[in-house]
Amino acid sequence: MKVLVINSGSSSIKYQLLEMDTEKVLAKGLVERIGIEGSRIIHRKNEEKYVIEKIIKNHEEGLKEVLDLLTSEDYKVISSLNEIDAVGHRVVHGGERFSSSVIIDKESLDAIEMMSFLAPLHNPANVMGIKAAIELLPNVPQIAVFDTSFHQTMPKTSFLYAIPYEYYEKYKIRRYGFHGTSHKYVSRRAAEILGKDIKTLKIITSHIGNGASIAAVKNGESFDTSMGFTPLEGLVMGTRSGDIDPAIVSFLAQEEGLTVKEVVEILNKKSGVYGITKGFSSDMRDIEDKALEGDKVCRLALDIYEYRIAKYIGAYAAAMNGVDVIVFTAGVGENSPVTREEICEKYLTYLGVKIDKEKNNFKGLERVISTPDSKVEVLAVPTNEELMIARETKELVSTKN
Question: Which residue of the set 68, 105, 110, 147 is catalytic?
Answer without folding.
Answer: 147
